[in-house]
Fold:
Amino acid sequence: MRVALLGLVLLLARAAAGQTSTGTPFHVGYVDTLLFNERLHYAAFGYDGPAPLFVHVWFPLTTEPQTSPLSYAQLRERTLQGPLRRVYHELLLRMDSAFIEYDLRYPLGGDEPIDYAPFSEAQVKDSLFALPTGSHRPNVAQTLDFPVIVYHHGSQGQSDENVRMAEHFAANGFVFVSCNFHWPLEDKPYGTPLLWEPDKSSIRTILRFASQLANGNKVFYIGHSWGAQEGWCTLHEPGLVDAFVSLETTMEWKTDTAEVRDKWPHMLEAITTQSYPMPILLVADTDGEPPYPLFAGVRGDLGYLDPKQPFGHESYTSACLLRVAGDGRFPVPDATELRQQSTVYLALFGEMLDFLRVRSGMPAYLPQQREDDPFHRFHVSSPTSPTKR
Structure:
């Protein structure tokens, strides 16, 4: 890891932390780097060695940006040599296919493909990826003395599936780290794991990196879907993170323990046998109100959020909602629904930000009581054996 981190450490020299002089949110910086999970072997497309983690880092800029905002496509540009160049190319091909399948091909709640004629799906994807983000590559040494968030994508998800979330946290004083937890495999579907068990070693690798970036500040974990499941399977281990946000594992509305044991045995074992030493925020749309049945007995400090309005499983990602930006340029038959989903998505940002700000020793932003509260809420705390980081 030391060799892979050298360039990033030199670029992101530590300095005094704080918001901009006007008190307004930060501009957002972005860099990428490469880590290796020495405990997980990967061999494909001419590469044979420790599993590579292609890392994205968004962070607060403490000076005015001197470069133009990056496009979504530019966030993926990397300089790689040898077999890793081919591996990354194959990974991007599969990420593109997943984006088209889950975020582009169908309208929300529909099972008939959208007719983009005269454009192809690939052309629509390229037009969206050409849009500017709010992220800038810095050209001078930059402050990193902030709390750090690690984001874990869902099954068949993408390392950059939540750019808007990353930028929101970076603009509000957090470093946001994500990477691939999938690797391209020859003749196998995207998302096929290297090992059929929780990938704790990759999570530990990225959390060690996050701890280095944090410089003594708090480290947090946000996972969506399978990424949240991996969190439940791993984060009961003492000292890994200071708080955990679980975004819809898909088990929240389940009541059939036999079905869950068949489909998610590792996670069911974790939540029924382990204690969690950090506060956890659980978010899911169950068409009801929390607590969620199978999580009711989890030993830990749990807060629940259940959106009052329908909220789709993919709507926890900005990749799903990006399509609305093409309204007026190509068909977006569900533009109204996408904008409604975006309203809940942005409200969730505020909730997560407050949750993590408080755990970082910062004041909360949101009022205690809201007349227009978009969430059902519930809180339960059961005895655990907390271990501080």
The chain has ten helices and ten strands. The beta strands are 27-44, 47-61, 135-136, 148-152, 175-179, 219-224, 243-247, 280-283, 301-307, 375-381. The radius of gyration is 20 Å. The chain has one domain: 2-381.
